[in-house]
Amino acid sequence: MRVAIAGAGAVGRSIAGELLENGHEILLIDKAPTAISVERVPQAEWLLADACEITSLDEAALQRCNVVIAATGDDKVNLVVSLLAKTEYGVPRVVARVNNPKNEWLFNESWGVDVAVSTPRLMSALVEEAVSVGDLVRLLRFSHGDANLVELTLPPESALAGTRVGDVEWPEDTSLVTIIRGTRVLTPTREDSLEAGDELLFVAAQAREEQLEDLLSVRREDAVG
Fold first, then answer.
1. Could you report the per-residue pLDDT of 128-169, keeping only the tens digit for each?
2. Is 40 exposed, middle or buried (0-12, 13-18, 19+ CB in 10 A)?
3. What pTM was estimated for this model as a whole?
4. Using CA atoms, how far apart are residues 148 and 101, in angstroms rounded to an integer?
5. Which string of b and e fits 138-162 if b means at least 16 CB within 10 Å?
6. Are the C-beta atoms of 143 and 205 separated by less than 8 Å?
7. Do 174 and 212 contact (CB within 8 A), yes or no?
8. Tell me, what DSSP letter sits at residue 214?
9. Are 1 and 24 in contact (CB under 8 A)?
């Protein structure tokens, strides 16, 4: 997956490093010569350019990107980059950093933003989620205890699609805390049924993550056999 990151400061480099570890192709863009530190993220491509300029984005071949992340420290820049990425280049997934909470209301689809977030870890996790239906994504590691907040989008072929929450034998040390279905946020009960495309959020022990992923991603034919 090709990902362009506008803003090569600490936030942009942090996101780039994590995504590179997961095998993605990364392009870092920044207009400040002092921000171009190739030695800090040597595996990435670097471009000294203004990400708010069409000519710069043409040079970056933004139309070939699966995801664009607007990660500068300036909310105005992030909004302009998001709008250009979506409207001029048709980038499927635009993730934008919000620096000032007072500006959060602006970061919506009107400005081309698919997801607005404020932490590098969550930004990279959401990028992974965009192309990882059926794969478990770790969103947050709790500082106390061996537990993480993890997310998995239930794939259509999952054997659990159509199953009641109360009928599922969840792994030990695992709790389903939220179901996101379209624009709705549901607090799951035993009677709720799982549907393909549901975004499921769990608090789970790290040792149970692989077991949880296998349970949710199993194909129907595998479950029967």
1. 655 555 677 777 666 456 788 888 889 888 889 999 999 999
2. middle
3. 0.60
4. 26
5. ebbeeeeeebbbbbbbbbeebbbbe
6. no
7. yes
8. H
9. yes
